[in-house]
Here is the input.
Amino acid sequence: MDLLSRVTEEFGRRFGVPPWFVVCAPGRVNLIGEHTDYNEGFVLPMAIDRAVWIALSPLSGQHILAYSLDFNSTTEFQLGDLRRTTSGWTEYLKGVAWALQEAGYPLRGWRGVLSGDVPIGAGLSSSAALEMAVARAFSAVSGWEWKPKEMALLCQRAENQWVGVNCGIMDQMISACGKADYALLIDCRSLDSTLVPLPPATAVVILDTATRRGLADSAYNERRAQCEAAAGYFGVPALRDIMWERFEAGAKGLDEVTRRRARHVLTENARTQQACEAMQHGDAVQLGELMKASHNSLRDDFEVSSVELDVMVQCALEHPACYGARMTGAGFGGCAVALVQADAAYQFADEVAAAYRSRTNIVPKAYICHAADGADIVAMPA
Ligand code: GLA
Here is the structure.
């Protein structure tokens, strides 16, 4: 059964009436532009056809009553009395409610049923999808206009300040603003975005290493701090502001590790803009080369890859249908992304999964994915 039917039917079973709204917000895969968002640079993600769905109806008071099909658990809280109590999915609901209220949005209560098919903790932004779906739900029942960029910023605030993860803006932006059939070049300083088509006859395959790293959060924060230190050394607001010549001339004064971190960000920003151009010219070969270079830079300069990610990328690159592959998302485990010939995508997924399994003894997953629309109301059944 599809997730639209699942949440709608479960809502009917629990509450005896159909829901007023079904909202949905997608996860994402980043094609290129990694660890550039919090340096106010460029990213090139696409929203994917895996999402969080909520069937809901407004309540007259300030009460939230939500049931998660995936966790088989219910949460209840009052909008006027938000408190951190647990660490699970519930905190994303409260965090978004908190950020919206702080920004002055009047919120109405609701009851609803949630479910999703973005794998959790895999680097495909299940958290951002949940946040954006909750924001879309509040907008639907509370009756104020949906402004995707502003909502992305508020959901990022919820994640930074309520959930306590110091992420950049990429994941929320693409979950809010994604467009079917396109990737989006996002300028993470201005939040301007450009629709970019995939090269003709190509497909995007996500390769999940089935590994997750516990220390990812502290390593992520450490990378951020190193980037900020490098920007401070050059006296600019963010690494985005340093041209290559200036970097080369001044980088000697940085310690070796910080220099490599900054070099990744500068080269990755350049690659991301070149990737956008390659896509606009339909050049799959060039895009693939840039993805390979991105992986090498993330592995060697930024040091956020892992043995399993490197093996997965290697297996992908050895396949004749592959133009390029790289780790995607924060790193330290999770997924790789590959650009492949569309007519060989299923074969590629099977053969690369088998090759990875035989080299690592780990059973991976592969998803052939399509670019999807951002957060929206998808049905009004009542
Ligand atoms: C995570 C963060 C994003 C971004 C990526 C790395 O997904 O949530 O903001 O920094 O890592 O590119």
Summary: The pocket of alpha-D-galactopyranose is lined by residues 34-35, 37-38, 167-168, 170-171, 329-330 (CB under 6 Å). The chain has a mean pLDDT of 97. Residues 256-280 form the longest helix (25 residues). Residues 197-369 form a domain with the Alpha-Beta Plaits fold (CATH 3.30.70.890).
